[in-house]
Request: fold
Amino acid sequence: MGGLRAEYGGPQIGPHIPLAGSLRLTREAALANRSDLCLRAFVTKVDSVVTRVSYCHPVALVFHLPEEVEMETGVDFNLWNPPLPHMSLLYGHLTEEERKKAQEKVYILDESIISLSFLVTHIALYQTNYKDKTLRS
Reply:
């Protein structure tokens, strides 16, 4: 993340993996549903390194969720978008050419990134302001 930010700029972001995107719920309804998200620990693995035309994830790792986790997280959160577990490696407005170069740089910085896997033991529910490009919210 630091290597990409040094070359392409953007705000410093802490590593995080959203399991679900924008929710169309009130805060109260989301908090009421969170008790349904008591999961057993599971292992996730990097599926791919992708680029997108998006400020929040122009270059990101996409993670594979085990099938039993997908079924267990079947809570109706009234999502705007289908779940796509990912970790943004960089935030910023990049051209298509910059995104492709940044994607290549990910493999240069860490050849083994595609084999990354780890144990997930906790999840959290956050409310953020997606318009806040400073990430202070």
Summary: The beta strands are 42-51, 59-64, 86-90, 117-120.
